[in-house]
Amino acid sequence: MATATATASKAAAQRGRARAEVNQLQTFIWVGTDKRGSKIKGEYAAKNVSMVKAELRRQGINPTTVKTKPKPLFGAAGKPIKPREIAVFSRQISVMMSAGVPLVQGFDIIASGQTNPRMKNMLTSVKTDIEGGSTLYEALGKFPVQFDQLYCNLVKAGESAGVLDTVLDTVASYKENIESLKGKIKKAMFYPAMVFAVALLVSAILLIFVVPQFEAVFENFGAELPAFTQMIVSASRFLTAYWYIVLGATVAAVFALIFIYKRSPKFAAFMARAVLKLPVVGQILHQSAIARFARTLGVTFRAGVPLVEALDSVAGATGSPVYNEAVKRIRDDVSVGHQLQLAMRQVNLFPNMVVQMVAIGEESGALDKMLFKIADFYEEEVNNAVDALSSLLEPFIMVIIGTLVGGMVIGMYLPIFKLAAVVG
């Protein structure tokens, strides 16, 4: 027992020293000549210049210049690591392991090709932990933001079963599908949001810069302005005088909503339910949540993760607080012995077709295949719905823009029409 404890302590100390050494490394830029006299250059991470020169000479390169790589003035720390970068990394490490490249060497190759310093440092840290004796699951677990519980559980299952390369290929496909689905949802939301933002901006410009010019002309008429025109003029005066208050209140309201949404689960659930009830958009979000639920559960179940533990990971992957709570209820029901299809029926969120396919999968012992079929179907539905949404929104957006901008233009010309009628 004492021997095992001492061995574990020694391994932990070695990992600590390895991480400390990585943190002390600097990146050097070098220029040299190879055996044929050709000029070559590159980068190398080491503790000092002497180590770089020694390594280059060992490789048959005669170094002529070795200097510390200068840090960029802006963005020295690098951009935040995006989910799509994790998806690309997952595919790269999957391909390398399938080709027989050792895990440590694969991380080294992928890290050397990164342009984002944060991503490079993270992969280097993971590689160092693996060299120090940690499992891939343990090394990735130190970065919970980039590698969530679901990702780590899948890797752990793959390592335990000795099929890490196969699981990594599954994880890579899963991440690519999820990111593709997220992209479609963002596309559906981004277009109308941008159009409405532009319409509001154009309206604000008209009220602040254009309407005051018409107001100066109206004052010379000496006649009473129509009610609609007077309303636009009053809005213009208020916005011109207190634009900073309006802008500040708008920004404050947006930040307050975001803050409350992140800090209050009840408010987040309320907003999620409200959005799910919207026509067209709500249907897309429903289909997206079902697709993510089915694909995530299918991937975890196929990897050998127990169903209750898989549902615990799936809850946070649906992308909706409403479905998050529903999956937790399903998990609780399954943990006490209920069938998955019965637990899904009780939450009253999943269409009858989904429940029936899950029931068939449970009875036939092919639950993962059924879940993948459900995911494929609903991902295709989301894709079609996003395309249809763009076509449906175009005339609706034109009506909104026409009402906002056209209404102001008509309001400005009403007094002129009235004056022309009087003169006529």
Automatic annotation (TrEMBL):
Pfam families (alphabetical): T2SSF
Endoplasmic reticulum listed as a keyword: no
Gene3D superfamilies according to UniProt: Type II secretion system (T2SS), domain F
Record key words, sorted: Cell inner membrane, Cell membrane, Membrane, Transmembrane, Transmembrane helix, Transport
Major site of localization recorded for this protein: membrane
Domain (Type II secretion system protein GspF) ranges: 89-212, 293-415
Compartment annotation: Cell inner membrane
GO biological process: protein secretion by the type II secretion system
Superkingdom of origin: Bacteria
Transmembrane segments: 190-211, 241-261, 396-416
Membrane topology: Multi-pass membrane protein
InterPro entries named in the record: GspF/PilC, T2SS_GspF/T4SS_PilC_CS, T2SS_GspF_dom, T2SS_GspF_sf
A GO cellular-component term linked to this record: plasma membrane
Family annotation (PANTHER family): GENERAL SECRETION PATHWAY PROTEIN, PROTEIN TRANSPORT PROTEIN HOFC HOMOLOG
Family indicated by similarity: Belongs to the GSP F family.
Protein name: Type II secretion system F family protein
Originating species: Tahibacter soli
